[in-house]
Amino acid sequence: MTNHLRWAEHPKQNTSMKIRNRRVIRFLARIMTAAFRLLFIFVRIEVRIAAPGICPYGSTGDQRFIYCAWHDGIAGLVFPLPGWKVAALVSQHADGSYVADTLEVIGIHPIRGSSRRGGAQAMRQMLEAAADYNIVIATDGPRGPRRTVKEGIVFLASQSGRPIVPVAFAARRAVRPRGRWTDLVIPLPFTKAYCGAGAPIHVPQGLHRNELGPYRVQLQQAMDDLQTYLDAVAEGREVKIPQPPEIDWQPLRRAA
User: Fold this and answer.
1) Continuous H helices in the chain
2) What would the pLDDT profile of 234-244 be if each residue is shown by its tens digit?
3) How many domains does the structure of the chain reveal?
4) What is the domain extent for residue 224?
5) pLDDT value at position 143?
6) Quick one: CA dihedral 52, 54, 56, 61, positive or negative?
7) How confident is the model over 11-40, as pLDDT tens digits?
8) Of 71, 110, 111, 223, which has the fewest CB atoms closer than 10 Å, so is most exposed?
9) Structural domain includes residue 192
10) pLDDT, tens digit (0-9, with 9 covering 90-100), for 138-166
11) Residue 236: CB partners within 8 Å, gap ≥ 6?
């Protein structure tokens, strides 16, 4: 995803320009949205869930969840989303404006903030949003470390009382363009892709920050297991990952 334009004013001097005009950013966001929507028309998606009522692509009833995702798989997770209440954390970095506007176009409520900028304000907004919305967080963030769970999502779960559901994405054939922050997984047309939702993780309410560590480790293991499972399925290898005995993986086809 290209977030800035570059040109050469002098053979020995490169200058970068960031697009800041809101109309231009929103126009580019609409183009990006249209391109991804067109792409996903030609991608066969299968959803696999570890328990009923947690599917990010169906009704969760009165329950609200915090969906934990990896940043490199976020495109494959958010674009198939139907029009139900969901909010997503977006970096306050200038380049996050593209992402925020794109999310708004597809009906997702963006909350701006990160661990480096606007974190406290974003946490307050997410706590308010958790009352009415499912929350989607790319826990490793745009700047990484890649596929490493951070404690912020565990703290949000503890303060809001909402369970965390691990979610992940994999595709049989995909491209991974190199970015400044991460390698976004973009499925190729006519391939098959898999979205998965693991068993909910319940974090006790009111934990202090020095008590979050064990639950961060638990969530890290759950995310790693889920990604390993989906990658294996995408490669044509059916494998089992550690799950409570009462949980069965159920393949579901995305509604048209």
Assistant:
1) 22-41, 74-78, 96-105, 119-129, 151-160, 213-234
2) 999 877 655 54
3) 1
4) 19-253
5) 76
6) positive
7) 344 434 455 677 887 888 889 889 999 999
8) 110
9) yes
10) 999 777 789 999 999 999 999 999 999 99
11) 172
Residue with tokens 């989607």: 136
- Identify the residue with better confidence: 253 or 225: 225
Convert 131-142 into a string of H (helix), E (strand) and C (coil).
CCCEEEEECCCC
Predicted confidence band of residue 222 (pLDDT cuts 50, 70, 90): very high
How far apart CA 143 and CA 150 sit, in angstroms, is 12
Q: 62, 133 in Cβ contact below 8 A?
A: no
Q: Which is nearest to 88 in space by CA: 110, 66, 67? A: 110
In this structure, is residue 10 part of a structural domain? no
Query: What are the tokens at 170?
Result: 């994999």
* Nearest in space to 126 (alpha carbons), one of 149, 109, 141, 143: 109
53-73 pLDDT, tens per residue?
A: 888 777 777 889 999 999 999
Written as six digits, the tokens of 227 are 């990604």
Q: Which of 81, 56, 17, 68 is nearest to 223 (CA)?
A: 68
192 φψ region: left (φ > 0), alpha (ψ -120 to 50), beta (else): beta
Burial track 165-197 (b if 16+ CB lie within 10 A, e otherwise): bbbbbbbbebeeeeeebbebbbbeeeeebbbbb
- Give the list of residues 6+ apart from residue 103 with CB closer than 8 angstroms, or none: 78, 88, 90, 109, 110
What is the pLDDT at residue 138?
A: 92
